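Notes to self after the call with IL:
- keep both proteins in one doc
- input above output, always
- annotate only the second one for now

Protein 1:
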Amino acid sequence: MKLTRHIIIAMLLLLCGIVAYAQQSNLIAAKDELVLLIDLRSSKPNLFNVLTRAGVQGSNNTQVLKGNFSSLYNAGWKLKAKQKYVLQFTKPITVNTDRVPAKPYLITMSVKQTEGRPGYPANVAYGVNKFSRVTVWELPTGVTRFFLPGNAKARKVQLSGSFNSWTTSKGMMTKTDSGWISDIKLRPGIYAYKFIINGHWIHDTNNALSEHDGHSGFNSIYYRYNYTFKLQGETSASRVTVAGSFNKWNAGEIPLTKKSDYWQASLYLHDGMVLYRFNVDGRWVADPANPTKIKDDKGNTNSVIKLGEIATFQLNGYDDARKVCVAGSFNNWKPDNLYLKRVNDTWVSPLILTPGNYGYKFIVDGKWITDPANTCYQVEGGETNSFVAVKPNHTFRLRGYNNARTVRVTGTFNNWNEDQYIMGRKGDEWVMSMKLPEGKVLYKYIVDGNWMLDPGNKLWEPNEHNTGNSIIWVDGNN
């Protein structure tokens, strides 16, 4: 995430009370108090988010930046130190002091900036959760438990998020002696969520990760893990981290925890091929337990993980071909990169791909061709390519229209591009399976140039053309 010069974090908190140079407002939990750092050069939106998390409601950002701190004083904060532009406020911790880490812990302004729609985070390469008190965890049964501590007097508490289409009618949490719980089944990935207490939406104050909600607040972010890095031995090391292609080889970002005779760290990794190495006290080490290794262009030996779905590309015939390759949007259309092997009378190549939608073609002795066994197409830059969805979560179906020459599907998922997706004919239906974004999706069919609602779907809503759009809701767990 690129930040302007005035919001680059350069934070260091000394527990003796000295505020180091910082160019972004932050809220930190020390051992027995909360410490609020405010940089008077912060932007108003940044300051608003920090003050909201600090429990300062209805504050005037402009007045705070001008030196009027009455809203902070009213919320129980005391000005403890000032160093040039940086102010340090403190507030005693009155609950859960036994769960606050001994070292300073950033619990706010870890705001993600993905390219997803508000409330539905975009895919990310990796993720590590950051809690001041763990309020979301995985149970042995495979379900994820969300916990809202306290709120004993609340009449009704709900859990809402990207995993249940931000419902306000479901997601009821169960009251316990220490708070409220809700158990749901999640696949590995990134999720946004909030609690609804007596009709009021709040973020998880114990969760350091957030994403802007598209309004004036933010949603809490949780990663459902799917991978654990483990390094056996190295028991005399003082620090072990893991880095790789997923985090741009940032050696200091993901530390491993020392166990009896090994080190480990769990996180979420996006599907695909991942290169990685361990860093042991500054010394790079390939994973000795992983036999799959590859050298990069600098001569470094990297361990390799392959996560994802297996998509098998096959081309029948072409007995006399000397070389057959496949290229597509999954490898930036590089020819002579992914080769098919001859098995009897078929050319075959199984590839591990990230779930998504892809255009592709075969290259037979230098000649590019579409897949003759696939009647679904994707038009990109005026070029017609074969289309495949890896791990699709919806299949569009239009029954009948036997005499139609072409049937296309378009909608909010492709910015209403009317040429992009051409459906294939199977039996008495036109079909196309796709990987769609989560949440509400609007769409229409285009039959030989004529736009139409989906006759097999009763859900629709009006549009600006008074012709309506069909609606589907895509569940994040599909």
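Protein 2 (the one to annotate):
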Amino acid sequence: MRLVERLTDDMKQAMKSKDKLKLSVIRMVKSAIKNEEINHGKELSDDEVLTVLTRELKQRRDSLQEFEKAGRDDLAAASRDEIAVLMEYMPEQLGEEDIRKLVAEAIEQTSASSKKDMGKVMGVLMPKVKGRADGALVNKVVQELLQ
């Protein structure tokens, strides 16, 4: 089943079960997907939908950090709930050890030797971890291994 179809089915189910949180999050995601489809002038593939989901997830995580800094526990809790709903649609996340292996392979493949080569490594690596790992964590591991 395509990701968009799954979102639609889950939205219908959330309506039936009166799950307001899930319904709200799915509607926001479907709206973002529709905007991307309009911008690209075509229906999005699952890979492109995953990119939209990743962007939405990153926005929620950034908001969560800001709410926690400001001491807004009510808004932070709401962001955590939204993140939990979005994570249901993401592929299984890679652990730090798996990321380290992929980074080491990418460094070897690009013959990178210093931080100047970070762009090459990230260019090879990001398509492999797309949607399966947090970009900040990948960036941190690449910097560690290139030192």
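Annotation: The longest helix spans residues 46-70. The mean pLDDT is 90.
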